[in-house]
Amino acid sequence: MHVACGKCLQCRTGEAHICQNVKIIGVDADGAFAEYVVIPESNIWKLDPAIPQEYASILDPLGNAVHTVLAGEIAAKTVAITGCGPIGLFAIAVARAVGATSVFAIEVNEHRRKIAREMKADYVIDPSKENASAFVMEKTGGLGVDVVLEMAGHPDSIRTAFDIVRRGGRISLLGLTSKPVSLNFSEDIIFKGITVQGINGRRMYQTWYQMTALLKAGKLDLHPVITDRIPMKDFSKAMERLKTGEASKILVYPNGVK
Amino acid sequence: MHVACGKCLQCRTGEAHICQNVKIIGVDADGAFAEYVVIPESNIWKLDPAIPQEYASILDPLGNAVHTVLAGEIAAKTVAITGCGPIGLFAIAVARAVGATSVFAIEVNEHRRKIAREMKADYVIDPSKENASAFVMEKTGGLGVDVVLEMAGHPDSIRTAFDIVRRGGRISLLGLTSKPVSLNFSEDIIFKGITVQGINGRRMYQTWYQMTALLKAGKLDLHPVITDRIPMKDFSKAMERLKTGEASKILVYPNGVK
Amino acid sequence: MHVACGKCLQCRTGEAHICQNVKIIGVDADGAFAEYVVIPESNIWKLDPAIPQEYASILDPLGNAVHTVLAGEIAAKTVAITGCGPIGLFAIAVARAVGATSVFAIEVNEHRRKIAREMKADYVIDPSKENASAFVMEKTGGLGVDVVLEMAGHPDSIRTAFDIVRRGGRISLLGLTSKPVSLNFSEDIIFKGITVQGINGRRMYQTWYQMTALLKAGKLDLHPVITDRIPMKDFSKAMERLKTGEASKILVYPNGVK
Amino acid sequence: MHVACGKCLQCRTGEAHICQNVKIIGVDADGAFAEYVVIPESNIWKLDPAIPQEYASILDPLGNAVHTVLAGEIAAKTVAITGCGPIGLFAIAVARAVGATSVFAIEVNEHRRKIAREMKADYVIDPSKENASAFVMEKTGGLGVDVVLEMAGHPDSIRTAFDIVRRGGRISLLGLTSKPVSLNFSEDIIFKGITVQGINGRRMYQTWYQMTALLKAGKLDLHPVITDRIPMKDFSKAMERLKTGEASKILVYPNGVK
């Protein structure tokens, strides 16, 4: 989905996902809702035959999840995921597959919390009902979690992220927010000696190799995230279900659901 | 088991496992076969109540496995383990738990190969019967594996390690050998751009935290490695079974098997 | 100066500088302004005879600078230092010594800018007179700097840090601030794919080994930062000079200046 | 000089320098001694005007040095370089520029030792006259060096490398050897917990950015390595001087020395 220029410093040093001149299919050019899409040959990734066909259409957000989870150490670590849209839900599966030992999923929407449970998060928390920070701190013996994957992009969840990360831990930020967020740098970052990462897109092509390997090995069961399979003519109806959170990932079949 | 001095460069910079003045319980001082053992307070690690009691006696070799597997990137990678003594067998479980996508176990002893299968290695190979290198290269599409964990300490298995690691891959050496091993540095290391690591002991205390977390989360089923449970009076008989490879880890009960 | 407990997770995994139970000499207990100070044996670091005696009293802030500069890759990179108090000034010397190729020093106080020039910063900028961000962006060909070391703890300098760091770059935060700082997480961190680190104290004892090695090798000339050498009786006068920024580091001699 | 395929795993994950299908100009195709050379556009690197013109012809071996030195931590570390051909000599300059605190140069050829001294190695040792290992161990207080850059490719120098590296240190192997080398894996690698890296070529394009930055900043004085400047007609004579070691890098001018 990201078309990198191939010539800037970032592209030439293994950081093409933050290319200075990136064009995004669907933002800077027609994307998957258009009748035809033009993309460079190098952006085409051949689906391994061992991977279920229907996963093809969800590889991009899965890639975001893989990139975020694997942006630092994760094996034998406790992880909190704030926000369980599709990427957050995928991140539950990925984190478990690569050795996270406790996964806390924090999400206000009840439909999404239901899927988070199906993805086998160890703890699923509704921050509108209970104090998520207090809950995480208690379950980690007052330590906090090693890793927070922030995938909601909401000032409240970002606040929670900084509250529950342990001293020396990592916060990986993926969720976009248009609102400014206020931090107390001394208390929130410096005294705790934490690392905060901005995560953008997927690593070209490391993320794709990682995803392929995990999927081929059967390490990721993503079916709970695919909530709807619809013929294209029901498009508008499906969009409604996305808004309420009842639907997570919707597979749209041009010629009728198979 | 390793008593570090706490004052050398290595101890003071997070590398106490390769302390310049290390004393090893069982080598430099009486160990677990003695009636009484004296160890410093800081070497005592309290078993978490959630961890099965019988795992207590196998944490040291499990720690070697955890240290070796996690000495570099492993998630979404292919791994070969050359040598399936207890540590190699544990390494199968650990590698799987932290996201290795294919685990090749290479071992000449049939008893050990049987356990390797129970530990759910993806491929179990007898290098005395088939060409292990050819097998691995074929299964990896000619690429070789990302990571080799060398746990046999035999010149043949070391040779295999260098043959099957992919360009840019990692070989982590744990298996001790008294025999000199001959390498072609240009072909074996330099042109392939690989990294070779010597792995010694367990990281203090990082490995112990990692082990505890993985065991508490139920990520490791180590039971197949515990082949024998004997009363102490049958000690000599058990030793025989170790020599043939029929036994892997033997739990010795001072007051009769519970 | 940091007395770590030696028993928490952080202490036991090489992160004692962010010990959960840290006591700071001078904050939690009497410090260098007291007649007597009690510190644990393990906090004593013997000065190598090759290191100038007068550097002994400035090793703590030098350690902050070494920790910050070496908290990520720095060789062959461009670096901006926002805030040139003593630690910022030391950081100029350290960054140059370990291969930073351009050092931008940004500081409002004219006395400090003068010392920054003596420390051989490549560019010294007064952000009250000129647009620091525009200057840095121009000199880096619109790219921004690879690394920002934030040592002022002022909302304005923090703002500058996020403006001038390049995509994929690092911001290491050391300067404390009591005021909340507002960020646009999407623009400031996520799209740029940057890493933000909280830096606290010095790494025990890695930083001390690094400092000793650099000083013994004559890689750091810190004399410009030592602006005043006074007998203890002139203490109050010296404090005045600190407030105006005329003085940077002041050596206080109990028995008269030697 | 390395033409990478751009499509293999290594090329697509930032490791193009160990491309599976690499072609080397001068080995797999006509190189700099041919009248015309054909190389892909992406292999052309524009010399920054701030870099002395005559350095253009030595960037490839300088790149090997930069790649080797920066293949691991180097700041505030002690370094030994075994073998002072041009790449070893360049490595002295690079190591010093990025903060190595002691550089030991070990070389049998007297001409090369002379240049090593001009490159400001801290210690220059003739292993045919004195015991290089004993010398290094004494000067490092019995510890050994943090980093060894092996650039001779001779069994004796490789032996020395393993003898002088400290516990937990790094050996980066660049020097090619056609002879098999015998190691005691237990003593030489495992008990010491060292890391051994094979270094091949230069990182595309990270090394080139690093080189450019260091040269532009005036951090590297490479003139002592350029021993000869000759018109092309004196080619054979120059080759003689290369064999004796009197010449290190020879600049050949097609139209007479400028």
Structural class of chain A: alpha/beta
Query: Helical region count of chain A?
Result: 9
> What Rg of chain A is obtained from the alpha carbons, in whole angstroms?
19 Å
Major sheet attributes of chain A: 6 strands, parallel
The largest beta-sheet of chain A arranges its strands as: 5-4-3-6-7-9
Description:
Four copies of one chain form a homotetramer. The first copy, chain A, is of the alpha/beta class and 258 residues long. Chain A contains nine helices and eleven strands. Chain A has a six-stranded parallel beta sheet, sandwiched between helices. In chain A, strands 1-2 form a two-stranded antiparallel sheet. In chain A, strand 10, helix 9 (235-244) and strand 11 (249-253) form a beta-alpha-beta unit. In chain A, helix 2 (59-69) packs across helix 8 (206-216) and helix 5 runs parallel beside helix 6. The longest helix of chain A has 12 residues, at 86-97. The radius of gyration of chain A is 19 Å and the shape is globular. The two termini of chain A are 26 Å apart. The mean pLDDT of chain A is 96. At the A-C interface, strand 7, strand 8, helix 7 and strand 9 of A face strand 7, strand 8, helix 7 and strand 9 of C. Strand 9 (195-198) of chain A pairs antiparallel with strand 9 of chain C.
